Amino acid sequence: MASTNSANSSQTTAADNKKASAAKPQEQEEEIDIDLEAPETEKAALAIQNQFRRFQKKKK
Asked: Residues 42-52, buried b or exposed e (16+ Cβ, 10 A)?
């Protein structure tokens, strides 16, 4: 009977862990403060956009 109880408790623990891990991202919302007017931000955005466009062309 002890093995049955331990099997049930491990199943419950696994289910609880899944629920807890799913809830964590919703609870922790980190606010990121980025200056959208900064020249470095504009350069980075343009670089990301160019790489994405190249990726899309290569994909076709």
From this structure: eeeeeeeeeee
